[in-house]
Amino acid sequence: MIYEMDEPIEEPITETEVVERPLYLKNLDIKREARREYVYFSWLRGHTIAEIAELIDINPSTVYEDLKKIRAQLNAQPRSMQQIRDEALISLRLTHADIQKTIQEAKNNDASYTQIKGLYSELTSIDKTILQRYTPTASAPEVTAKANDQVKAMVDYMTETYGPESLSGFQEWWGKRMAGRE
Questions:
Q1: pLDDT digit string (tens) for 70-103?
Q2: Terminal Cα distance for the chain, rounded
Q3: Whole-model pTM above 0.70?
């Protein structure tokens, strides 16, 4: 419904009118999903259920149930190698962020140079690992013919497409170009 500028809006817009379709296949609570992901990745980092519960201030049984749901969700779907690589990359990035946070805390607490240097070397090794595993390798285009053969093919193409007269001014142009370089 389109309203004129001077016409008052009688009914406020509700969330159901703003959101046309849910982002998920089922109507899931986004906060619960975010919490489950946080719990799962904290668990991957090596935190215990009790530590995770204390970190996000929830009951340990909720952490256990969240892990159980995430595991069931992962096991229900066949995982491809790409999904496994993506999870490993996320884990590396999380570890990278943790080390950066630790470096900042060490700087704030006036830690020794050797301690901070060790953290930076660990950070560098993670960066190298990410670059080695997740950067696509560049490859040079394969040359199928020699340069002279390609030039001959281009000349043949020009004469077939545009006629032999299309090359009539080429020798004059080439002579001027070569004279300009000298």
A1: 888 777 766 677 777 777 788 788 888 888 888 8
A2: 73
A3: no
